[in-house]
Amino acid sequence: MNPDRQYLTLRRPDDWHLHLRDGAMLETVLPFTVERFCRAMVMPNLEVPVTSPDLAEDYRRRIIAAVPGGAQFTPLMTCYLTDDTRPEVMVEAYRNGIFAAAKLYPANVTTGAQAGVTDMACIAKLLEAMEEADMPLLVHGEVADPDVDPFDREAVFIDRVLAPLRRSHPGLRVVFEHVTTEDAVAFVAESNGRTAATITPHHLVINRGAMFAGGFRPHFYCLPVAKRERHRKALRQAATSGEGSFFLGTDSAPHPDRAKFSASGCAGIFNAPVALEVYAQVFEEEGALDRLEDFASVFGPRFYGIKANQDTVTLERAPWQVPAQVAAADGDVLTPFMAGGTVNWR
């Protein structure tokens, strides 16, 4: 940080949880990520889920083709787990560098999760193979049980799924994605170092009341949903704590406005245009700017066993207004997080 505290230079960060979609949407949203991040863990829940090495390679090629000319960006591909995923195929693809991790979506828990895992017993042998190969498991940490209140689904997931998983597979590397509760923070903090968590920028800024301020606000609707204020405070404390089990994952999840404003509005917050800037603002508010680089650029690579980036990105303390909309390549429009608002870093 410069003595006048107007500039902050960091090792270039990575985004350890990102939705890029496909087609025109991919072309629209990818440049925002490339401008800020060097690598990204790309989620596999497309309309045709990325369930095989061939589908992953095809998707990687489409992403690389959409990277703006001259930019350096590495997409890290994930395998969408189903009841029928073959352990030997997935692990071989991991060892060959095709997959960086596998993603567990409980069936029907979120956007594109219809083909997800219906019962953990179905992937028991797969989890054994992953543990032996040291292949990371990324989990969407909610149950899909309609009898469980949406605001309780993360805590119930810990009790029903994650805690038993940790007991059965203590050596498995697990990333608890986009945590939203003090329950999740406590679980990760008390784990054995083989469990980490990503924290989004929006869950650091909004609580569940934001969805209902002046009417229903669909652009603040995501899964997992934002929780009570005490949970937001717990997330901010975890993110800025300097604890290496918590690191950056935006969960930027773009949808066109027509899908957000539909009768069954899509869950997801498009934060890529402001993600790094919002993290900086939160860390400054918490008096922890000196810990931002570790959270954004060091702890993630360390958990995944890869080198941190050597190039840098510089942030300037200079307020700017977030655009109200982003035009998509196919004529759609998207509303970014903090649309029309002011962010203090750029």
Tell me what you see in this structure.
It contains 11 helices and 13 strands. The chain is α/β, with parallel strands linked by helices. Strands 2-3-4-5-6-7-8-9 form an 8-stranded parallel β-sheet. It has a 3-stranded antiparallel β-sheet with strand order 1-10-13. Strand 4, helix 3 and strand 5 (101-104) form a beta-alpha-beta unit. Helix 3 runs parallel beside helix 4. It is globular. The model has no long low-confidence stretch (mean pLDDT 96).
Low-confidence stretches: none
Bin the strand percentage.
15-25%
Q: How many H/I helices?
A: 11
Gyration radius, in Å: 19 Å
**Mean pLDDT over the residues:** 96
Percentage of residues assigned to helices: 25-40%
How would you classify the helix and strand content by structural class? alpha/beta
Described by the principal axes of the CA atoms, the overall outline is: globular
Spatial order of strands in the largest sheet: 2-3-4-5-6-7-8-9
According to DSSP, the number of beta strands is 13
- Element-level helix/strand string: EEHEHEHEHEHEHEHHEHHHEEEE
Assembly context of the chains: single chain
Biggest sheet descriptor:
8 strands, parallel
Termini separation (Å)? 15 Å
Task: Give keywords.
3-stranded antiparallel beta sheet; alpha/beta; 13 strands; 346 residues
Topology, pairings included?
Blueprint: E1 7-11, E2 15-18, H1 23-36, E3 39-42, H2 53-66, E4 74-80, H3 87-95, E5 101-104, H4 124-133, E6 137-139, H5 153-168, E7 174-176, H6 182-189, E8 195-199, H7 201-205, H8 229-239, E9 246-248, H9 257-260, H10 275-285, H11 292-304, E10 312-321, E11 326-327, E12 333-334, E13 342-345
Helix pairs in contact: 3-4
